[in-house]
Amino acid sequence: MNLSYFLGYCAFRTAFATYFRCRFFNAGRVPRTGPVILASNHASFLDPPLVGAALHRQINYLARKSLFRNPLMAAVLRSWNVVPVERDSGAGGAGLKAILDRLIAGGAIILFPEGTRTPDGRLHPARAGIGLTVIKSAAPVVPVRVFGTYEAFGRHLRFPRPRPVAVKFAPPMDFSALRAEAATCSKPRLKAVYQQVADEIMDVITRLEPCADVTNFPPR
Asked: Which residues of the chain have pLDDT under 50?
């Protein structure tokens, strides 16, 4: 980790451990080196740093391009491996290229199959965008599920609340067969492959049930 990332990493780990009483489960399933896509449900602004705090390696994040207008903020975000993307285009165009470049360089990146934060705390269907990214890359995919972040700092809250949060990682998924098919299939089938990949990832995320430690925190 570079110095800026390490300082942010330590600050977030401390905040999550003390204010949110976080728990990490099966973080060892994420490769310590090499490219990997972390595919997580999205309930809060807390999700990206929470997933990053669970791992002992740098990961790359996405943030809307407008946040880079301030030179100081832009410098900090770049030192934290943040990829600027257009708000409405997601991983399309230049954003997709930037993501693939990070993966080719051996980096880890976190993506959200649902595309945006849940408005009601429930899991929502995956969009095909993550399927496109997965097919275009050669990286393994590790599904991730965050728990409690909606209650701690969902869309309905103006300030974070001291609620327990947790992260659970699934084993890596291999999409080599669908990648091979995508290389030669028709355009209609290719679109179906993108959605199939997205749906399979979301299915694994859905089946990541909370451990007893996640649901039975003592009251605070």
From this structure: 89, 215-220
